[in-house]
C-alpha cells in the first residue's frame, strides 16, 4: 500500500504538464491539417466531473472553423493528440503527446446533426462507433504514444450519409482509484459521412449523462501488486454503450471488452480481443492482430453479476 501511495503521489505531481488535446484528423491516411474541422480549447486540462455541462466536446472552445471533413463510410480515420496546441515543445518533450503515466482507453462517438460546421452540442444524441482499451499488455494510450500521437479506427460501413460531430475521448486512469479523479480529454471534429449506409445512430446516449462516476471503467485502481498499471492481467470494462454493429438489425450488440470490438460479425480494431472461452464478440480483425483471452469470460461474468446486484 505504501508503494502505491508513493506512486500515486508521483503521478499527481507529474500530471500538471502531462495533459493532451486532440488537434487533427486524418482520413484514409491523409492528414486534414492542424485544427481543420476540429473544435478545440487552448487549455489541455481535463474534465473530471462526468456531469459537467461541457462534457460533450469540452469547454472554452477557442478553435473552430467552417471546415467539414469528408469521411467515407468504411474509411480508416485517425485523431492526432498533442499535449499543447502545436504538439511537442522542443526536441526533448517527454509529455508529448501525453505523459506515459496517463494510461487509459480511447473512444469514438458520432452525433447526427443538420450542419456540422454550425451546430451546437446541447441535446445531441451520441452513438459509439469504436473503442480501444487494454489488450495485449497495452492501453490505447500506449498505442497512441507509440504512433506519435495518432490513434485510428475504422468508420463503420453502415453509417448513413450526412453531417455528424465526431467525438474523440481519452480517459486517463492513473488516479482513478478515487472517485472523481479519472481525467477526461475530449474534442469534436466536424465531418460529413459519404456512402450508402443506412444507420444514423442506435443505442444513443447524452453527454453529460452517459457515464456515472462509479462506473467500473471510471472508478478503478489500474495497478497490480507490483505497481504496474495493467490490472494484473484482468480485463478492463470500457464505459459507455455498445459499439455500433453493422451486422445487427438492432444496430448494436454488447461490446464491453478488454480491447475494442463489436459483435454480430463485425471486425475488431487493431490489437483488440477477438476470441477466447465463451467470447461472443468479433472473431476477425479489421487490420493487424487481435487477442484471444480465456480470462475475459470469467471476468465479464463477474462484472455483470456485480452490476446486477447494484441494480437490485
UniProtKB/TrEMBL annotation:
What reaction does this catalyse?
[(1->4)-beta-D-glucosyl]n+m + reduced acceptor + O2 = 4-dehydro-beta-D-glucosyl-[(1->4)-beta-D-glucosyl]n-1 + [(1->4)-beta-D-glucosyl]m + acceptor + H2O
- The main location is secreted
Annotated signal sequence is 1-18
Every CBM1 domain range: 266-303
A cellular component term from Gene Ontology for this protein is: extracellular region
Keyword Cytoplasm in record: no
Kindly report, in one word, the top-level EC class recorded for this enzyme: oxidoreductase
Entries under InterPro entries matching the protein: AA9, AA9_LPMO, CBD, CBD_sf
What CDD domains does the record tag this protein with?
A: LPMO_AA9 (cd21175)
* Enzyme Commission code: 1.14.99.56
Q: Which GO terms describe its biological process?
A: cellulose catabolic process
Which UniProt keywords are listed? Carbohydrate metabolism, Cellulose degradation, Copper, Disulfide bond, Glycoprotein, Hydrolase, Metal-binding, Monooxygenase, Oxidoreductase, Polysaccharide degradation, Secreted, Signal
Cofactor(s) this protein requires: Cu(2+)
Localization: Secreted
Q: Which PROSITE patterns match?
A: CBM1_2
Q: Is the NAD keyword given for this protein?
A: no
Copy the domain comment: Has a modular structure: an endo-beta-1,4-glucanase catalytic module at the N-terminus, a linker rich in serines and threonines, and a C-terminal carbohydrate-binding module (CBM).
Name of the protein in its database record: AA9 family lytic polysaccharide monooxygenase
The protein's organism comes out as Venustampulla echinocandica
Amino acid at each position: 500500500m505504501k508503494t502505491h501511495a508513493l506512486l500515486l503521489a508521483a503521478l499527481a505531481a507529474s500530471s500538471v504538464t502531462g495533459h493532451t488535446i486532440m488537434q487533427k484528423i486524418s482520413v484514409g491516411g491523409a492528414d486534414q491539417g492542424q485544427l481543420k474541422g476540429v473544435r478545440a480549447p487552448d487549455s489541455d486540462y481535463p474534465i473530471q466531473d462526468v456531469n459537467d455541462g461541457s462534457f460533450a466536446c469540452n469547454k472554452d472552445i477557442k478553435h473552430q472553423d467552417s471546415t467539414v471533413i469528408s469521411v467515407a463510410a468504411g474509411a480508416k480515420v485517425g485523431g492526432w493528440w498533442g499535449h499543447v496546441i502545436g504538439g511537442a515543445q522542443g526536441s526533448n518533450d517527454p509529455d508529448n503527446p501525453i505523459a506515459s503515466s496517463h494510461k487509459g482507453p480511447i473512444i469514438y462517438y458520432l452525433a447526427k446533426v443538420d450542419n456540422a460546421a454550425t451546430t451546437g452540442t446541447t441535446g445531441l444524441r451520441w452513438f459509439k462507433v469504436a473503442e480501444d482499451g487494454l489488450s495485449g499488455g497495452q492501453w490505447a494510450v500506449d498505442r497512441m504514444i507509440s504512433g506519435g500521437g495518432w490513434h485510428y479506427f475504422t468508420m463503420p460501413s453502415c453509417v448513413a450519409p450526412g453531417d455528424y460531430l465526431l467525438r474523440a475521448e481519452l480517459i486517463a486512469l492513473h488516479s482513478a482509484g478515487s472517485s472523481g479523479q479519472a481525467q477526461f480529454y475530449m474534442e469534436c471534429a466536424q465531418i460529413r459521412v459519404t456512402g450508402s449506409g443506412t444507420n444514423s445512430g442506435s443505442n444513443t446516449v447524452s453527454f453529460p449523462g452517459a457515464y456515472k462516476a462509479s462506473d467500473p471503467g471510471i472508478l478503478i485502481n489500474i495497478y497490480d501488486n507490483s505497481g504496474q498499471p495493467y490490472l494484473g492481467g484482468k480485463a478492463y470494462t470500457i464505459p459507455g454503450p455498445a459499439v455500433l454493429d453493422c451486422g445487427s438489425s438492432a444496430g448494436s450488440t454488447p461490446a464491453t471488452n478488454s480491447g475494442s470490438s463489436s459483435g454480430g460479425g463485425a471486425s475488431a480494431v487493431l490489437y483488440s480481443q477477438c476470441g477466447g472461452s465463451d467470447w461472443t464478440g468479433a472473431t476477425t480483425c479489421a487490420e493487424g492482430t487481435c487477442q484471444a483471452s480465456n480470462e475475459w469470460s470469467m471476468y465479464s461474468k463477474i462484472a455483470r453479476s456485480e452490476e446486477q446486484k447494484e441494480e437490485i
